[in-house]
Design a protein that fits this description.
81% of the residues lie in helices and 0% in strands. It is an all-alpha fold. It is globular, with a radius of gyration of 19 Å.
Length: 317
């Protein structure tokens, strides 16, 4: 509970940055062509370096793996509920595949980590826990299980077979995953971990970590744009209900029911409260599901999360 107000402050500051970037975009300083550049700066530079530097000086504990288990179990429940709702609404396979993934997969890499870092500062325990939950509880299960499921729905929609392995392979050779593995390896070598904790590397990595929040804010600010929700209003309500309300609530009750620490519960709720992940929309379009619908819903959940993230933090923490 003592981190509630710093967390709320961090959320407000982060989204004020996003609003500021939107204003700069309207002034013509930024345009849509800049978004891929900032996306790559986040996913291929600032975030991988920050992941490596955090894990390299940390220790992995059993309760962190338990927290990741709570996350992946909750995601599975939310995806299943979305599937049941889609079947009840008699939606096509393409729409169903997109909605199932959007209901469970959140923007943990790009949004949750900066918020955790803003809130807990240099608290490596909180940062490490967030990374373990993100990778083992969301990212790895999504690319091993979620992508094939999306491809199956897409193949039923298009009556064409989909090659899933290239996307899975790209994840396992991505800078984020490589940084995660290298950080874990270094953390198990005391001499190397001590070197990474020295003043030189602490200062060096600090430049990247300090720039992560603004890079993410720029990327998000460039992505947001007005959309017409009227044609997809029932689907929008479904995703918002499951992803932004039910998901963090289930995470909270699961964490408290298993007796996880207050810090673990807070990290889990923060990550569960994130809007739907853009990667789910990209993969949906790539494998024959309704990518346009998925993209519109991702943007919509980002906009709604401006209100729901502080609300869920207030109600649950």
């Amino acid at each position: 509970m003592e981190e509630l107000y710093p967390l709320l402050k961090s959320v407000i500051i982060f989204f004020l940055l996003v609003v500021f970037i939107q204003l700069l975009k309207r002034q013509g300083i930024f345009n849509d062509s800049h978004q891929p550049v900032f996306n790559r700066l986040v996913t291929e530079l600032a975030l991988p370096v920050t992941i490596f530097s955090t894990l390299a000086i940390s220790k992995i504990h059993a309760d962190q793996i338990l927290a990741a288990t709570v996350m992946v179990s909750t995601i599975a429940v939310c995806c299943f509920l979305a599937y049941v709702a889609c079947r009840a609404m008699k939606l096509s396979y393409g729409k169903t595949g997109a909605l199932v993934m959007l209901a469970g997969i959140g923007s943990t890499s790009t949004m949750a980590y900066p918020l955790i870092r803003q809130t807990f500062g240099a608290n490596s325990e909180a940062l490490t826990l967030g990374l373990i939950v993100e990778e083992f509880g969301a990212c790895i299960p999504y690319f091993i299980i979620g992508v094939p499921i999306t491809a199956w729905f897409g193949s039923r929609e298009t009556n064409q077979a989909s090659e899933v392995w290239p996307v899975i392979k790209n994840f396992f050779v991505s800078p984020i995953f490589i940084a995660f593995i290298l950080g874990l390896c270094v953390s198990q070598v005391p001499a190397a971990s001590s070197v990474m904790a020295g003043d030189f590397f602490t200062t060096f990595f600090g430049y990247f970590a300090n720039g992560l929040e603004i890079l993410v804010a720029v990327s998000l600010g460039l992505m947001l744009r007005p959309i017409d929700l009227r044609p997809i209003l029932p689907l929008f309500v479904l995703i918002v209900s499951i992803k932004l309300f039910l998901n963090p609530a289930l995470i909270f009750f699961g964490a408290t029911g298993l007796g996880l620490s207050g810090l673990a519960t807070e990290i889990l709720v923060i990550e569960a409260a994130m809007p739907s992940g853009a990667i789910a929309a990209v993969v949906a379009g790539r494998y024959g599901c309704d990518g346009a619908l998925a993209s519109a819903l991702v943007i919509a959940t980002y906009l709604v999360s401006l209100a729901t993230i502080p609300l869920m933090i207030f109600l649950l923490l």
